[in-house]
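Subject — a protein and its fold
Fields — amino acid sequence, C-alpha cells
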Amino acid sequence: MIEKMLVVDDEPDLEPMIRQKFRKKIHEGKYEFVFASNGLEALSRLLEHKDIGIVLSDINMPEMDGLTLLAKLNELRNPALRTVIVSAYGDMDNIRTAMNRGAYDFITKPIDFSDLEMTIEKTIKEVEQVRNAIQEHDKLLAIQYDLDTARNIQSAILPKKFPPFPERSEFEIFASMEPAKEVGGDLYDFFLLDDNRVGFVIGDVSGKGVPAAIFMAVSRTLIRATALKGIPPDECLTYVNNLLSNESVASMFVTVFYGVLDYRKGELTYANGGHNPPYIVSSEGKVAPLELTGGLALGVVEGITFSSKKIQLDKGDTIFTFTDGVTEAMNNDFDLYSEERLEKLLTDKFALNVTELVNHTFESVHFYAEGAIQSDDITVLALKYL
C-alpha cells in the first residue's frame, strides 16, 4: 500500500529536497507526496486526495498558518489522519500549542532528513494501527448487524402472540426464551392439529450462537411440518431424526420433547428425544416428572425408533417444560439452580396461571444467578389443562 503524505510549506526548495531524499521509496511505490504552499491549499489537496494519512505542516505560512490548519484538520474528524508540525527550533511556544491541539509529533528546522525519515516511519506505523483498528471496528459492526438480524429472524419464527388460541377455553399455554448470546439454540412451538388436539414442542440444540440458531430453525421447521401431518409424537420424532441425521453437520443434535394434548378428554401423548423430563403440576400442588420414553437426541443416530407414552390429565393440571438453561443456571459461586429448586418453586407457585408461572420461573433463576453471566439459553413452556 502506498502511503500518501501532504507536505505544507511555503518554501519552494522543500519539494525537490523531499523528492530527492525519498526518491527510492517513491520509485518503489511506497511513498507518494502531495504538496501545498499554505493551509488553504492544503485543505483543497485533502479534498482531492482523501487517502492522505500524514500531513507535514510548517507553522508560519501566509493566508492560513499551520496552527489554523491544525484546527481545521481536527474538524474533519478523521481518526486515521496524523499531523507532524515543522517549525524552527526556537519556536517552542507554537510547537507546544500545536501538540496541545492534537499534532502527533514535530520536527525542527533546519530539517534533519534522517530525523524526518524516522518520524515518518513512526507516524506511518501509528496510522496503520489506527486504520487496522477502524477496519476491525467496522467488521465488528457488520457482525453485530448480522447477529441483530439473525436474532430478529429467530424471534419472528417463534410464537409470541399470547393467548395464541383465544377461542379455545379448554387449555391455556405460554412460553418464553432468553438466549445466552445474541441468538440461541433453544426452540419452542405449539399448533392446533385439529378441533380436539394441540401439539407443543420444546427443544435444545447442542452448542450456542449462530450455528446453533441455524440448526434450531431447521429443527423447528421440520418438527412443525411433520407434526402438522397429524402423525403420533413417536413417529414424528423418528421421521425428523432421520432427516437431521442425514443433513447434520459439525455433529450437531437437538433434544426434543413433543407432546399432543387431546383437550376433549385430557389425554396427553408424548415422546421424548433426550430432553429434560417435563413436570406435571397438579391442581393440588403435587409435582412429578413425566416418565421418559427412552429416546436419544435427534440428529445423533439415523434409523432409531422413538417410543411414546400416554397419561391422563386432571382438570387444572399443568405440563411444565423447560430446557437445562433453567436447572443448570449458575450463580457467582458456580452452584447450579438445580431440579430440586425448580420443583420447590413449582410446588410453592402451583396456583399461578401459566403466564405468571413462566415469568416467575425466569425471575427466580435470575435472582439466584446474582448477576452471573448467563451460560446457556433459558426456555420455558407451560400448558394448563382446563
In short: Residues 3-136 form a domain with the Rossmann fold fold (CATH 3.40.50.2300). The radius of gyration is 34 Å. Residues 113-157 form the longest helix (45 residues).
